[in-house]
């Protein structure tokens, strides 16, 4: 039920941890005299039914009974297949879909023909027919959705009713990332986040340091009464490595960074002063310089406020989503600016004068456009990203 492994790394008599199966068996035996005396005590050495082969047989028997129940439950109904699919962030299915995991199939390569052979082999094992197939769901790789030689096309040649649908979760994730990175400042922001994760996650010592510093801040906040205490709060956090096919990873990293910001800066300062080589120290110093700019925090807090959409909302609530975006565009500027200014004050980041001339980084002053900071942040960043 919990998906735990049966086998242990060391199942010998002298092992202090023989694995879940044997340890659970010993625990039951210690509380059940019949099992202790009959099953383990009186049985000959070769009949205790605890060998690795017997454990594999038990696992296979459980898998057989599980898949048999799935097939019996399905009966003669029509079905669809999902191969290497991705759930959307809401972890919800559409309508009354019943989704079951049927099995893993080893293939020699990922060509469409090899994948088709693997699917047919799985179908054959469980008495399923391609004629009953009504849907195919894969990602957008050419070997899956290719118009002439993709897995989709090969199955459609055998069953024209097996309609192909691109995995919506993959589509939504990739679209969000692609659109976001179309904006130069936003693309630069996410590149910085990736660099930050590489620096922090690239060393066990840095991860431990971040954990210790965050623990110190939590303990200090608790002692001063500025942090609430209840179940689920103040959990240990880390920076997830962003992945383009999982927008939730980007969003999760931004959420955690909000709480870890000052601790992350302290870790970077330590690396900048005590790094093992010049490249490490230079990278840490560059990241500190970027992260303590008003521009970085403005983009950061803007994206932190935008929760990720799940595919159900994206498909059925398009008009509502557009109205909500328009409301944010019309009324969200002032509240965002106040939030950024407050965050800057809490983290000793210099606030900028919105009426000063904006200097474009990477250009000389005489080539800069005559544009105020207010115009840059409100029009070029705030409005521009929402409009995209």
TrEMBL record:
Residue ranges occupied by any DUF4371 domain in the UniProt entry: 2-150
The record's section on InterPro entries has: AtLOH3-like, DUF4371, RNaseH-like_sf
- PANTHER family in alphabetical order: GENERAL TRANSCRIPTION FACTOR 2-RELATED ZINC FINGER PROTEIN, ZINC FINGER, MYM DOMAIN CONTAINING 1
Q: Which organism is it from?
A: Erythroxylum novogranatense
Q: Which SUPFAM superfamilies does the entry mention?
A: Ribonuclease H-like
| Protein name as it appears in the record | DUF4371 domain-containing protein
Q: Which residues form a coiled coil?
A: none
A Pfam family (short name) is DUF4371
């Amino acid at each position: 039920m919990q998906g735990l492994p049966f086998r242990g790394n060391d199942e010998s008599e002298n092992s202090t941890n023989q694995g879940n199966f044997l340890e659970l068996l010993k625990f039951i035996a210690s509380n059940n005299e019949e099992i202790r005396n009959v099953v383990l005590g009186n049985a000959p050495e070769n009949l205790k039914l605890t060998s690795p082969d017997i454990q594999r047989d038990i696992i296979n028997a459980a898998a057989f009974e599980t898949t048999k129940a799935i097939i019996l439950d399905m009966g003669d109904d029509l079905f669809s297949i999902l191969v290497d699919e991705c759930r959307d962030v809401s972890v919800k299915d559409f309508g009354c879909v019943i989704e079951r995991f049927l099995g893993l199939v080893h293939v020699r390569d990922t060509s469409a023909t090899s994948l088709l052979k693997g699917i047919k082999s799985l179908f054959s094992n469980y008495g399923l027919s391609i004629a009953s197939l009504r849907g195919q769901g894969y990602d957008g790789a050419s070997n899956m959705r290719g118009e002439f030689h993709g897995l989709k096309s090969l199955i459609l040649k055998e069953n024209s009713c097996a309609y192909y649908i691109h995995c919506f979760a993959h589509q939504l994730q990739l679209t969000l990332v692609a659109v976001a990175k179309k904006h130069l400042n936003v693309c630069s922001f996410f590149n910085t986040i990736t660099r930050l994760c590489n620096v922090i996650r690239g060393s066990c010592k840095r991860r431990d340091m971040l954990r210790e510093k965050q623990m110190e801040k939590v303990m200090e906040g608790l002692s001063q009464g500025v942090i609430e205490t209840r179940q689920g709060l103040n959990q240990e956090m880390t920076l997830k490595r962003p992945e383009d096919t999982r927008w939730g990873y980007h969003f999760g990293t931004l959420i955690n960074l909000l709480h870890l910001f000052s601790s992350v800066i302290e870790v970077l300062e330590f690396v900048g002063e005590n790094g093992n080589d010049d490249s490490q120290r230079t990278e840490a110093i560059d990241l500190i310089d970027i992260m303590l700019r008003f521009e970085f925090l403005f983009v950061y807090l803007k994206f932190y406020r935008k929760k990720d959409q799940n595919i159900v909302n994206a498909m059925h609530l398009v008009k509502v989503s557009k109205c909500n975006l328009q409301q944010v565009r019309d009324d969200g500027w002032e509240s965002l600016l106040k939030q950024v200014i407050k965050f800057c004050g809490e983290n000793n980041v210099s606030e900028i004068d919105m009426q000063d001339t904006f200097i474009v980084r990477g250009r000389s002053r005489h080539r800069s456009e005559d544009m105020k900071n207010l115009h840059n942040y409100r029009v070029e960043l705030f409005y521009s990203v929402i409009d995209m």
